[in-house]
Amino acid sequence: MSRTVFCKKYQQDLEGLNTPPYPGAKGQEIFDTISKQAWEEWLAHQTMLINERQLNMIDPQDRQFLQQQMDKFMAGGDYAKATGYVPEADDK
Description:
The chain is mainly α. The chain is built from three helices and two strands. It has helices spanning about 25-35, 35-50, 60-75, and strands spanning about 5, 10-15. A hairpin with a 4-residue loop joins strand 1 (about 5) and strand 2 (about 10-15).
């Protein structure tokens, strides 16, 4: 049986993650307040940011930037978008 959380991003009860995605307090906070759907959307967006902006995950400033963007994304705030990305049109 899956667990539910009140998702901070979507402001509703949704399926939660199976385990915390990070160690420590930040991982526990995400586990307790972010839905599986929001986390999966963040992972896809994070990948676009890393690739488009050529972020280096060894660089502490790039990691800090990504952390800030994740916090904004999850809070529903204005977060960085991947420049040049155009979603595919739905041909239905």
